[in-house]
Design a protein that fits this description.
about 50 residues; two-stranded parallel sheet; 2 strands; alpha+beta
Length: about 50
Amino acid sequence: MIVYYGSSVSACPNLLALHLLSYPQAKRYAGSWSDWISYPDNPVATGEEGKA
């Protein structure tokens, strides 16, 4: 399980909660969304494709 947010800092409370809920394998993507979208070849879901 990977936790991320717009700038990564806000992902920390979520990661702590997951660890407290016995998900020690959860990790934080340090670059977060800001880093991910800086690489043009990374996939990004948009429009209908991005809806759950």
